[in-house]
Design a protein that fits this description.
The complex is a heterodimer. Chain A is an alpha+beta fold. In chain A, 32% of the residues lie in helices and 23% in strands. Chain B has 16 helices and eight strands. The chains are: A alpha+beta, B alpha/beta. Chains A and B meet through strand 11, strand 12 and strand 13 of A and helix 5, strand 3, helix 6 and helix 16 of B.
C-alpha cells in the first residue's frame, strides 16, 4: 500500500512486517511501524530494535501507526508515539522524532559496562532520558507471566519477563538513581517465576487437593466428639443420633455444638484441620506451598538528578561492595591490609606483590548467561584462585571483570608463576563450562613499594593497562 | 520435759495408749504401714519370680510391635508441648502416633501445635475453637486414633525413655488387663516447700500406694496424666465421660466391663505440681469431690449385690471411700473423743500424736527408699522434710478433703467447677453423672 509521507521527516524507516527488522537501520532518525496489526508481531519488532547492541538503533524513536484501538500497556510504554493517521499526525511524528534525536545528541557516548546489570540499567536510563520521562510506571503484564513489567528496563533485557528486573531496580534504588512509590506486591512461582497462579487448599501430607470437609460435633451430655458422619445412622439420615449414648441431637448450642471441622484427604486418608494452601503455577504446573512463593514489591519510580547525570555522561554507577563472594575481601578491607603489608615490609625486609587480573571479555558472557549464573561463575572463578594461593594471600573483586590479589611474602618469579598458573586454570574453567567461549585474560603485577603510599599503589595498579 | 512426757505415757500403760490412739493404731497403722509392708514384700517377691514372664511379654510386644496412639488433650498447654514431644521421640517404643487436641486455648497453643504437626513431630493436631472440656478433647483425639493401644497423657508431663514400653508390657502378660497406669513423679519437686511436700506425697501415695492397691487387685485410678488403654476396651466403655475425676470414672468403667487394671511402677512420667498451697488446694478440692460424685453417686451400684457384682470392684471403689471419706470422719471422731475424754491430757496427747505420725511417715518412706534405684540419693535428701508431712497430710490435706467431701455431698459443687464448661456441666447435673 502506498503511504503518503509528505508530512513526515525524510529519514524515517518504515517497517511493514516482522521480516523488515532484518534490514539495516543505520542512518535513519526514527522507525514507523505500519500495517502490522498483530500485537505479537509489533512486540517482536519493537524488542528487536530496542535490544540492538548499537545504541544508535536501540534508541531510535518508534512510531506505531495502527488501527488497533488498544495496546497492552507494557507495549505502549516501549513505543514513542501511537498514531492512527500518518498524514494528519505527520507534524506530531516530526516533533517526537526531533525531540528524541536532540536528546540523543546531548548525550556522551555510552561507556563500556563490565556487568550485565550495569549494561542494561545504563541503557534504560538513557532511554528514559531521551524520552524525557520523569515517572516510570510498572505495567500490568497482560501477556507475560510476572504480573507487572517495567518495560523501560525489560526492553533491553534478554528475557522480558525475567524476575531479574526487580533485582536490578532494587540495585538502582540503592544507588540513588530512582526514588520509589509503592504500587503493589506480587507473588511468583519459585520454579519458573510466573505470576499466573491458582490457589487451592491441599493435604499437608500428599498435596492432593481432593479433600472432603466435615463438621466435628460435640454432644454435651456424654462428651462424645466426632465427625458429623458418626451421628448419621442409616435409615435415619434426617436426624443426628449420638453414637455413644444413642440420644437424638436436638438443639445446637443447647445439647450439642460444632466446635471445629476436619478434612480427610481422599488420596492418602490423612486427616487434618489445617490444609496447606498451595499455588499451582499455570505456566510450569509446579505446586508451590504459599510460603515458598517469591514475593516482590512493585513500585513506580521517579528518576533522580544522579540518574539524569549518569544517562547524559553514559557512565555506569558504582557497584562497590555489591559483589559478595566467599573468600574475597571488600575493597576497603583489601586496601587496609595492603597498607599494613607495606608497613610490615618496612621493618621485615620482605617482598610482596599486588596483582590485577582482568577477564576482558567476560561481560559478553555475563550478558549471555544472566545475573544468577554470573554470580555462580564468579564464585567458581574465585574458588579456583583461592586454591592456587596460600591462605595468607588476599583476594578482592574490583568489578566483575577485575580481580585483585595480594601475594604476600612472594618473590617476583614466584608471583609470576602463580599468576600464570591461575590464568591457565581460569581459562580452563570457563572453557569447560561454556563451550565455545574463550575468555581473554590480562594481568598487571606490581611489587609493593615501601616508599609509596599504599592507596596510590592501588590506584596505579588499576590505572596501568593490564598485559595480555 | 521429754522425760516427763515419756514417764506420763509409761504410767498410763498400753491400754490407755490404745484407748487414746485407737484411730492411729487400728486404722492408720494397720492400713498404711502393716498392710503396705506385707503387700510390698509380697509384690517384690512376685515381681522377681515373674521376671521371665516379663521378658517373654516384652518379646511378644516387640514381635507384634502394634501402633500405639498417644493422645494429649489439653488447654493452653502450648509451652509444654515441645518438652512432651521430645520425651516421646526418645521412647524405646517408637511405633507411635501422637495426637494433640487443643481444647479452645487462648494462648499460642494453636500456633505451636500446628508447627509441630508441620514439622512431623506430632501426627495430628486438632483444635476445637470452643472449649468442650477435658473429656470431649480426649474423646476427639481417641476418635481419630488408629492404634491398638491408646496412651492418654497430660501435656505438662514428660516421660522416662522406657515409660511407654514398660506400660505396654503388662498387656502381654495378662490379656484380661484393659488399662495400665503409669507412675508419676514430681518434676518441679525442689522448687519450694509446697512442691517438696507433694514430691514426698507422690512417692508415698501414688508410687507406693498404687503398687499396694494394684497388687491387691483394687487399683482404682489410672491417672489421666499417664494411662494406657486397650483401644477395643475403650470402645466398649465408650471413652471418657464428663469430669472432673474422669480418670477414676474411666477406670471404674473398665473394671465394671470385666477387665483388670494394673499399675506399672517402671513406667515413669514426670509432672509439674502446683507451686502454691492455694493452687494445690483447688486441685485437691477437685480430686476429692470426684470421690463423692463418681464413686458414691455414679458408680454406687458397685455396692449392690446384683448379677454384675464383683468383690474386687466393690473394694476398689470402697478403698477410696473408706480411706478417703470414712477415715477422715473417724479422724475427727478420734480428735473429739480425745478432747472430750482427755481434756487435761491434751498437752501429752498432741505431741504423742505428732510423734506417731512422724514415725509412721519414716517407716513408709523407708519402703520408698528400698524400692529406689538410681534415685536413691536424690530421695534421701527428702528425709529432713518428712516431719512436715504430719502437718501436710494430717491437717492441711485433711481439711481440704473434708471441705471437698462436704461441699460435694450437700451442694453438688463439682458441677459448678469452671474446670468444665457450663454447657456440659448443666447436662451432667441433669443426669446426675
Amino acid at each position: 500500500m502506498a503511504i503518503d509521507t509528505s508530512n513526515l521527516p525524510d529519514s524515517l524507516k518504515f517497517i511493514y512486517s516482522h521480516l523488515d527488522v532484518r534490514t539495516d537501520f543505520a542512518g535513519y532518525s526514527g522507525v514507523v511501524i505500519t500495517d502490522v496489526d498483530e500485537v505479537d508481531q509489533i512486540r517482536y519488532i519493537v524488542r528487536k530494535i530496542r535490544s540492538n547492541n548499537d545504541e544508535k538503533i536501540s534508541l531510535l524513536p518508534i512510531i506505531l501507526h495502527t488501527s488497533l484501538k488498544t495496546l497492552p500497556s507494557s507495549l505502549e510504554n516501549m513505543v514513542d508515539l501511537l498514531i492512527s493517521d500518518l498524514v494528519s499526525q505527520g507534524m506530531q511524528v516530526a516533533d517526537v522524532v526531533a525531540g528524541i534525536q536532540t536528546a540523543i545528541q546531548r548525550m556522551a557516548p555510552i561507556q563500556k559496562a563490565t556487568r550485565y546489570e550495569d549494561h542494561v540499567l545504563t541503557r534504560a536510563l538513557r532511554f528514559v532520558y531521551t524520552r524525557n520521562r520523569k515517572t516510570l510506571n510498572p505495567a500490568i503484564n497482560d501477556d507475560g507471566p510476572v504480573g507487572y513489567v517495567h518495560s523501560f528496563l525489560t526492553q533491553f533485557m534478554d528475557r522480558e519477563y525475567s524476575l531479574d528486573q526487580y533485582d536490578m531496580l532494587k540495585l538502582a534504588l540503592r544507588e540513588g538513581l530512582f526514588t520509589s512509590e509503592f504500587v503493589d506486591v506480587i507473588y511468583l512461582c519459585n520454579k519458573c517465576h510466573s505470576g499466573a497462579l491458582m490457589y487451592r487448599e491441599a493435604c499437608p501430607n500428599c498435596q492432593s487437593t481432593h479433600l472432603v470437609h466435615e463438621d466435628i460435633i460435640h454432644h454435651f451430655p456424654c462428651a462424645y466428639v466426632g465427625p458429623q458422619q458418626d451421628f448419621v445412622i442409616a435409615g435415619q439420615e434426617q436426624d443426628l443420633i449420638c453414637p455413644k449414648c444413642d440420644k437424638r441431637l436436638k438443639h445446637i448450642g443447647v445439647d450439642y455444638d460444632k466446635p471445629s471441622s476436619i478434612f480427610t484427604c481422599q488420596k492418602c486418608d490423612q486427616r487434618s484441620q489445617h490444609p496447606v494452601v498451595v499455588a499451582k503455577c499455570c505456566t510450569c504446573l509446579h505446586d508451590n506451598p504459599v510460603e515458598h512463593l517469591i514475593k516482590r514489591e512493585v513500585f513506580k519510580y521517579h528518576i533522580t538528578a544522579k540518574a539524569v547525570h549518569n544517562a547524559v555522561q553514559g557512565t555506569i554507577f558504582s557497584m562497590d561492595n555489591y559483589i559478595n563472594i566467599p573468600g574475597t575481601l571488600p575493597k576497603d578491607v583489601f586496601q587496609v591490609l595492603i597498607r599494613q603489608e607495606v608497613e610490615r615490609m618496612k621493618v621485615a625486609k620482605i617482598e610482596s606483590h599486588m596483582a590485577a587480573i582482568e577477564l576482558v571479555n567476560l561481560v559478553d558472557l555475563f550478558n549471555r548467561i544472566g545475573p544468577d549464573a554470573q554470580t555462580t561463575l564468579l564464585t567458581e572463578l574465585i574458588n579456583v584462585i583461592r586454591e592456587g594461593l596460600k591462605s595468607v594471600d588476599i583476594i578482592s573483586i574490583e568489578n566483575s571483570s577485575i580481580i585483585l590479589l595480594g601475594l604476600l611474602e612472594r618473590k617476583h618469579d614466584e608471583a609470576i608463576n602463580i599468576i600464570s598458573n591461575l590464568i591457565v586454570e581460569l581459562k580452563r574453567l570457563v572453557r569447560d563450562n561454556y563451550k565455545g567461549f574463550e575468555v581473554q585474560i590480562n594481568f598487571n603485577l606490581n611489587k609493593l613499594a615501601t616508599h609509596r603510599d599504599a592507596a596510590e599503589q592501588y590506584r596505579s595498579l588499576l590505572e596501568e593497562k593490564t598485559k595480555a | 520435759m521429754i522425760e516427763e512426757f515419756f514417764a506420763y505415757w509409761q504410767a498410763k500403760g498400753f491400754l490407755v495408749f490404745l484407748r487414746v490412739f485407737w484411730f492411729f493404731i487400728f486404722f492408720e497403722f494397720t492400713r498404711y504401714i502393716l498392710i503396705d509392708y506385707i503387700v510390698i514384700i509380697y509384690y517384690t517377691i512376685k515381681r522377681k519370680l515373674n521376671q521371665r514372664n516379663w521378658d517373654l511379654a516384652r518379646n511378644a510386644l516387640w514381635v507384634e510391635k502394634p501402633l500405639v496412639s498417644v493422645i494429649v488433650p489439653g488447654r493452653n498447654e502450648g509451652d509444654n508441648l515441645f518438652t512432651l514431644v521430645r520425651s516421646l521421640s526418645e521412647q524405646t517404643y517408637n511405633n507411635l502416633e501422637i495426637i494433640v487436641v487443643d481444647d479452645g486455648s487462648d494462648d499460642q497453643t494453636p500456633l505451636i501445635g500446628r508447627s509441630l504437626m508441620k514439622s512431623g513431630m506430632i501426627t495430628l493436631f486438632l483444635r476445637n475453637e470452643d472449649r468442650g472440656g477435658k473429656a470431649s478433647a480426649a474423646n476427639l483425639a481417641w476418635r481419630f486414633a488408629k492404634g491398638k493401644y491408646i496412651v492418654h497423657l497430660d501435656a505438662d508431663c514428660s516421660f522416662h525413655f522406657n515409660a511407654i514400653e514398660s506400660a505396654l508390657i503388662p498387656f502381654y502378660m495378662d490379656e484380661r488387663i484393659g488399662g495400665v497406669g503409669g507412675s508419676l513423679e514430681v518434676r518441679n519437686g525442689l522448687k519450694n516447700l509446697c512442691t517438696i511436700l507433694q514430691r514426698i506425697e507422690y512417692l508415698k501415695t501414688i508410687s507406693l500406694g498404687r503398687i499396694v492397691t494394684s497388687t491387691l487387685g483394687i487399683y482404682g485410678i489410672i491417672s489421666g496424666a499417664f494411662g494406657v488403654f486397650r483401644a477395643d476396651v475403650l470402645q466398649k466403655v465408650k471413652g471418657w465421660d464428663i469430669g472432673p475425676g474422669l480418670d477414676s470414672d474411666l477406670t471404674t468403667k473398665i473394671r465394671k466391663a470385666g477387665y483388670k487394671v494394673h499399675f506399672e511402677p517402671d513406667a515413669i512420667g514426670l509432672t509439674n505440681v502446683p507451686q502454691t498451697f492455694s493452687k494445690l488446694a483447688n486441685q485437691r478440692l477437685r480430686w476429692n469431690k470426684s470421690v463423692i460424685r463418681f464413686r458414691l453417686r455414679k458408680h454406687g451400684g458397685l455396692f449392690v449385690a446384683n448379677e454384675h457384682f464383683s468383690f474386687a470392684n466393690m473394694f476398689a471403689s470402697a478403698e477410696s471411700i473408706v480411706f478417703g471419706v470414712i477415715f477422715n470422719i473417724l479422724w475427727y471422731i478420734n480428735i473429739f473423743d480425745q478432747m472430750i475424754h482427755y481434756p487435761r491430757e491434751l498437752l501429752f496427747i498432741f505431741p504423742m500424736s505428732i510423734l506417731l505420725y512422724m514415725i509412721g511417715n519414716f517407716i513408709r518412706f523407708f519402703v520408698v527408699l528400698a524400692l529406689s534405684h538410681e534415685d536413691f540419693q536424690e530421695r534421701l535428701k527428702l528425709l529432713p522434710f518428712l516431719p512436715l508431712m504430719v502437718f501436710y497430710n494430717g491437717f492441711y490435706m485433711r481439711v481440704v478433703r473434708t471441705i471437698a467431701h462436704m461441699s460435694e455431698l450437700f451442694f453438688w459443687t463439682s458441677y459448678k467447677d469452671s474446670w468444665n464448661p457450663r454447657k456440659t456441666s448443666v447436662h451432667a447435673r441433669k443426669m446426675n453423672i
